[in-house]
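Weekly modeling sync, notes
Attendees: S.R. (lead), two postdocs, one rotation student

Agenda item 3: backlog of single-chain predictions. S.R. asked that every request posted to the team notebook include the full sequence so nobody has to chase files. The rotation student volunteered to paste the first one in as an example of the format we agreed on. Action items at the bottom.

Example entry:
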Amino acid sequence: MITLPPVSTNGDIRLLSIDPGSDNLGLSLFTLNPRDGRITSLQATTYTSRKLNMDKNIELAHGERVSRIMAHRENLKRIFSETDPFEVVCESPFFTMRRPSAYGALSELLSLIRTTLIEHYPSVPFIIVDPPTVKKAVGAKGNGDKDVVRKAVLALTDLNYMGTTKLEELDEHSMDSIAVGYWRVKQIQKELEDDPK
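Predicted structure, as returned to the notebook:
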């Protein structure tokens, strides 16, 4: 569960990052200093659709996959409202021959996340980034597996992690969402550094 940090007196901004999954959805909340993009706090968690309020009527009419995705939608509406992000960044789906149907589910989920964000916060950007770029941003090889990403995230020294679960105990979905957000944080920091203001 994500809990909001205390209200900041310096105008910190919030970035939500998502590792999409129709069953397990990793989510991180980065709080950033708007002047330099420094991470002032970070929390991460994983939401499992079966632990959310899955609608049995939707499941009967449209199937379990759609019911899982809709449960995430309802939860994301709440999260968007509570966190008031200035941006949402999400990892793009990737196609693998081992699980071709997973690509379709992830594409549906991404579309639903975007639509949900637009319905409630039409001016909040929704940014999508590919998995190899995310991995490289945390210092892992672009073709690295989940363990490589985990080790790379744990080696980062500027996360300012304040979650209720210890960083080293987070699951792969939470870890991936941190990596997704970290990629965007590094971009924001560079943009602020290059800005002559």
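Discussion: group reviewed the output briefly. The first helix runs from residue 56 to 62.
Action items: rotation student to repeat for the remaining queue; S.R. to check formatting next week.
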